[in-house]
Amino acid sequence: MLLIKNAKILSDNQQTIQRDILIQDGTIKEIGDNLSDVQADVFDAQGHFLTPGLVDVHVHFREPGFEYKETIQTGSLAAARGGFTTVMAMPNLNPVPDDQAKLAAQIARNQENSVIHVEQIGAISKDLTDHTINDIQGMTEAGAIAFSNDGKGVQTADTMLQAMTAAAKAKRPLIAHLEDDTLLHGGVMNDGEVSQQLGLPGITGLAESSQLARDLVIAKVTGVHYHVAHISTKESVALVRMAKSQGVHVTAEVSPHHLLLSDDAIQKDDAYFKMNPPLRAQEDREALIAGLIDGTIDMIATDHAPHGTEEKQKSFAVAPFGITGIETSFQLLYTHLVKSGLLSLGTLIDRMLIAPVKAFHLDAPTQIAVGQRADLALFDLTHLTTIAVDDFLSKGKNTPFIGWQVYGETQATWVSGQQVYQR
Ligand SMILES: NC(=O)N[C@@H](CC(=O)O)C(=O)O
Ligand SMILES: [Zn+2]
Ligand SMILES: [Zn+2]
């Protein structure tokens, strides 16, 4: 038994109230004032903010195939340090989980090596590239939570139509990484003034939004739950807003880095700022924040994309796309969206927990209540700390947020009442 004393939790009317929480057999048994239990281990939360563990629908844990970047173990420990207790893992692995047996093996591997809950996303098509649609029904039966070719765009309307039809039939969401290869022209960062100044080839926002427009009309016809990964442009936000108003079953996620940075933050050739989609213009960033506030963008997902330090220290032109993010997301967003007055704490928790659980029908608690599984995270909202790479549990040290000053440091994380992270 575990007794968490003096925790601040969100009340029904979005205020924080101080409570003690008693946990037995992995479940919340009692919530009250001045609880005591002689048999329980006591954890003093010291007035910090306690929430159900956060949920991230977009992470890359790299195992199997790229264990030098991350493993399921290091990725899940990093997630726990970020206050996350449930994540959805992308299938750009080697081998790619693209059939029923491989998907089942990947689920077993996740379960064996992770300290948190990891749901597995299956690949849409063979090797994430050619046009053979995988066995969506078979992988659904093996436990795939959704389907995506993340890392690659689905290039043809025909492939997308087949994939959406199969996913709709299997009642599984289809997650789109939007990227039209014919519009890339070798680009490595956002196409604009900054790319011109740095002499780096640009990626037009049309590579994302034109494919999104195509997908939304196909999604409407098929009735699939269509989810937009890492939305990055103002045109894409407008398209999702319009599609929602027309009853398309569409949801969207935005990453912390697209909310907090734009391409003008890139002042030199530094590949820690290189990710896909790229950091866009200031007006795109503003549209993303507005979309997050009005609910056009349903949720925040980190797109935690760890890479080796050596490969990320290469030039922008050749380094791999992607930044690590799961350990820093809550504190960055709390500091720069909540403390700054743009969002309430309750809305941030909605976008990082409640909305993802609802959209993907995940088995994860969304409130601190008696009978709920004790997946919990404790954050210190009052002390300022500095993001330091030496503190990372992820193998990936590649983030442009190193050195940023933030509130909201994780103090502890529990999964089913078992502590999986302690500051
Ligand atoms: N986001 C990235 O820049 N990279 C991701 C792939 C992806 O999410 O598209 C990766 O796997 O490294
Ligand atoms: Zn992607
Ligand atoms: Zn990704």
UniProtKB/TrEMBL annotation:
| Taxonomic superkingdom | Bacteria
Q: Give the protein family.
A: Belongs to the metallo-dependent hydrolases superfamily. DHOase family. Class I DHOase subfamily.
Cellular component aspect of the GO annotation: cytoplasm
One term of GO molecular function: allantoinase activity
Residues binding Zn(2+) 2 = 150, 177, 230
Function statement: Catalyzes the reversible cyclization of carbamoyl aspartate to dihydroorotate.
- Supply the EC number(s): 3.5.2.3
Q: Which NCBIfam families does the record associate with it?
A: PRK09357.1-2, pyrC_multi
Task: Locate the residues binding substrate.
Answer: 60-62, 92, 276, 307, 321-322
Q: What cofactors are annotated for this protein?
A: Zn(2+)
Q: Which reaction does it catalyse?
A: (S)-dihydroorotate + H2O = N-carbamoyl-L-aspartate + H(+)
What PANTHER family does the entry give? ALLANTOINASE (PTHR43668)
What biological processes does GO assign it?
'de novo' UMP biosynthetic process; purine nucleobase catabolic process
Task: Give the source species.
Answer: Leuconostoc fallax
Q: Which Gene3D superfamilies match?
A: Metal-dependent hydrolases, Urease, subunit C, domain 1
**Protein name from the UniProt record:** Dihydroorotase
| Residue positions binding Zn(2+) 1 | 58, 60, 150, 303
Q: Which UniProt keywords apply?
A: Hydrolase, Metal-binding, Pyrimidine biosynthesis, Zinc
Q: Which Pfam families match?
A: DHOase
